[in-house]
Amino acid sequence: MILVTGASGKTGKAVIAALAARGAKVRAFVRSAVHEHALKTIGASDVAIGALDDEAALLRAMQGVVAVYHICPNVSPREAMFAEAVIAAAEAAEVPRFVYHSVLHPQIEAMPHHWAKLKVEEMLFSSELNFTILQPTAYMQNILGEWDRMKNEGIFRVPYPVETQLSLVDLDDLAEVAAMVLTEDGHAYATYELAGTPPLSQTEVAETFVTVLGRPVRAEAESVKAWQQRARLGGMDEHTLTMLTKMFVSYAGDGLKGNPNVLGWLLGRKPTSLADFAARQSSV
């Protein structure tokens, strides 16, 4: 049995599906039973309910587990606290393998949610666990928030300059690697940077979707203030808004640049290109 924490999010669901495709039994750890049916539909064998700082619930979930994939909720202010509890439970249960879902370049202090993951990585270095750290860059799937605007208006809107360069990764590629390191030997104490593309400007990203949408698409920079107004109207909480604002400011200054070689080596093939992702999305 493989335990996936934070299983109700898009990353957890993708990892569960990839593990199920390999024939692995998966236990999904979620806060609410409302997710149980959906998770079992995509391949979870079992669903454990509890909070990420609930020691008793974590210990129950760890029983009979041969590997853990730990995902913290996005930009959580309790990343370190949750990780401390999950790591302690895994140690107490003597789980043979622990994989942590980190982020590309956690050393960037200007992005507090990256910096928090760096602290968790340091916890793992001091732990007794056989661990692997995955550091994915921004998902290609994040672009889909602008899909309708690109299709209907020909605009790809971002809250940073269109010259900003970001490396991207297909979530399905990340999930495939996660399933691999959870079920195969040879990845102990490794840290893998997972970028699927070289750095791309937002203009290059927009142009990639021209062919599949059959219309011109241009990148357009939105002010951070305008983005904040829209986010608040959409119900985003202030902590998340602050964390994402700091991320966008960091992107504007430095981008988020990675190299696809490591991901290609792990997959045994070229990572999914943005053009391939765009073509796949257009056929959905």
List the helices and strands and how they pair.
Blueprint: E1 2-5, H1 10-21, E2 26-30, H2 36-41, E3 46-49, H3 55-62, E4 67-70, H4 79-92, E5 98-101, H5 112-125, E6 131-136, E7 138-139, H6 147-153, E8 155-158, E9 165-166, E10 168-169, H7 171-183, E11 191-194, E12 200-201, H8 202-208, H9 210-213, E13 218-221, H10 224-233, H11 238-254, H12 261-267, H13 274-282
Parallel strand pairs: 1-2, 1-4, 2-3, 4-5, 5-6, 6-11, 7-10, 8-13
Antiparallel strand pairs: 9-12
Helix pairs in contact: 1-7, 3-4, 4-5, 10-11
Describe, in plain words, how this protein is organized in 3D:
The chain is of the alpha/beta class and 284 residues long. The protein has a domain at 2-139 and 170-196 and 258-272: NAD(P)-binding Rossmann-like Domain (Rossmann fold, 3-Layer(aba) Sandwich), CATH 3.40.50. Helix content is 45%, strand content 17%. It has a seven-stranded parallel beta sheet with strand order 3-2-1-4-5-6-11, sandwiched between helices.
Q: SS-based structural class?
A: alpha/beta
Residues in helices, as a percent range: 40-55%
CATH class of one domain: Alpha Beta
Instruction: State mean pLDDT (0 to 100 scale).
Output: 96
Short description:
This protein has 13 helices and 13 strands.
Defining key terms:
Rossmann fold; 284 residues; 13 strands; alpha/beta; 7-stranded parallel beta sheet; two-stranded parallel sheet; 17% strand
